[in-house]
Design brief:
201 residues; mainly alpha; 2 domains; 11 helices; 63% helix
Length: 201
């Protein structure tokens, strides 16, 4: 719990204590200031604590460490990212810091108006599926991986434009996929599955 959440919790506890004292004095009506204390202690402060805690959890969930260490099924992907000998695209991006922070989140978030919200909702669903056992190995990407996620960073880069000059329009329109050529992004599902099984062994 961070300091701001702790302040809200203590303030809410103090207000609820005062409200309890008010209700202990039965036989009289609440005055306006007591009604406001009731609203603050029972509604406003708990809502702020919930918001602050949820926001902190969502920010933490964007980190590579959270993705790699929060559930064992992601360990092979995390280990590949940090393996200096890996030639997979994600590892090359991670180790060269082509993306400065939160690399998993940056690559798996859509750069649309609601992309960050969709990524966070998907992440929460992944956690729920993991803890409920509603998943299978080897892991598979749900849906298609959109070129826009790659082109957000690479689309205006000179080396990209020079190397892909014959395909720029096709890639921008989605008629061709970046993954047609860049297929080794993460360890192949079978090898990640084997590593995960071996660790559980």
């Amino acid at each position: 719990m961070d300091n701001s959440s702790l302040v809200f919790v203590l303030a809410a506890a103090a207000l609820i204590f005062l409200i309890g004292q008010v209700f202990a004095q039965r036989g009289r009506k609440l005055i306006l200031s007591e009604v406001w204390m009731l609203l603050l202690g029972v509604v406003a402060f708990p809502s702020l604590v919930l918001y602050a805690g949820f926001n902190a959890a969502m920010e933490k969930s964007k980190t590579v460490e959270f993705c790699g260490t929060s559930c064992h099924v992601m360990h092979p992907y995390y280990e590949d990212l940090t393996n200096p000998d890996s030639t997979n695209l994600a590892a090359i991006h991670f180790q060269n810091r082509y993306i400065r922070t939160n690399q998993c989140y940056q690559c798996h978030s859509s750069y649309t108006m609601f992309g960050p919200m969709q990524a966070k909702i998907a992440g929460v669903l992944h956690v729920l599926n993991y803890y409920s056992g509603n998943w299978e190995e080897p892991l598979k990407l749900r849906g298609e991986y959109k070129n826009a996620n790659c082109l957000h960073c690479h689309g205006d880069a000179k080396n990209y434009l020079d190397l892909h000059e014959d395909y720029v329009e096709e890639l921008a329109s989605g008629d061709s996929s970046c993954l047609e050529c860049h297929s080794d992004i993460h360890p192949r599902p079978q090898s990640a599955h084997a590593i995960s099984q071996e660790k559980r062994g």
